[in-house]
Amino acid sequence: MGYAGFDEKWILAHHMNYKRWSEMYEDYKAEHPECDRPLKYFQHKCNELGLTHRYKSEHDEWIRDHYPDLGGRETFKQFCEHFGITKGYEGFKSHVKELGLRVTDERQREADANNGRHDNLPIGTIRSRCRQDFIKVGDGMEGWIPLSHYIAGAPSKGYMVVHLDRDIRNNAPDNLVTIHRRVSSSMAGFNMWSENPTINKTAIMTCELKEVMEGRTI
Question: What would the pLDDT profile of 86-109 be if each residue is shown by its tens digit?
């Protein structure tokens, strides 16, 4: 089945500028107000045009030439600037992996040196990574632990520290509680997590009681 009625020239000229089909479709409709077909048909049309794979041969050649010496972030930045397009970094990393590329030994030594700078920081230093706060308690990368673990205590195997208000940056002692992972999974399964700490406390106690009644140790 064909999906006629779409402006193929516009799609082919613009598709590299978008991370998501939905974003491209919104701009397409803005320039084609007569279009009343649903997004799924627009996606089918893009697939019909062979646009499922967004990277072209010239893109792959450029990445192969530059990635080994530049590394991930810098290659991504220059790639977008060179081709004048916008892509998501996570998707870019996945594509680099599919291409089987590695950074050069020199680039790896540079990355190792950058990581080594963390060892020069004093014990007790707090830094943010992936939206979460970590505190330095020892040497090496393994010497950095989540601040929540430092405050509430490192959880035993099978347990986890959770933030009652669901804000992982709020490490106030009264906002941290250690629970079994089964309790967390049960709350997620029943859609019981809330941004209200009081509701979460009650939900945790309910799930813990359920675990006990079913004969499981928590």
Answer: 667 777 887 788 788 888 777 666
Give the number of other CB atoms < 10 A from CB of residue 41: 14
- Do 188 and 135 belong to one domain? yes
How far is residue 155's CA from residue 160's CA, in Å, rounded to a whole number?
A: 6
Does one domain contain both 151 and 174? yes
pLDDT single digits (tens) 13-37: 777 666 667 778 888 888 888 888 8
Calculate the CA dihedral of residues 175, 180, 182, 186 and round it to 10 degrees.
Answer: -30
Note whether 133 and 127 are within 8 A (CB): yes
Show the CA angle centred on residue 81, arms to residues 75 and 84, nearest 5°. Answer: 130
- For the stretch 125-163, pLDDT in tens is 998 865 678 899 988 767 889 999 999 999 998 898 999
Q: What is the DSSP string of 61-98?
A: HHHHHHHHHH-HHHHHHHHHHHHT----HHHHHHHHHH
Query: Could you give the CA distance from residue 152 to residue 186 in angstroms, rounded to a whole number?
Result: 22
Q: Are residues 93 and 141 in the same domain?
A: no
**Could you say which of 109, 133, 148 is where a domain stops?**
109
Per the structure, the count of domains in the chain is: 3
- By residue range, what is the domain housing residue 35? 8-48
Q: Are residues 129 and 203 in the same domain?
A: yes
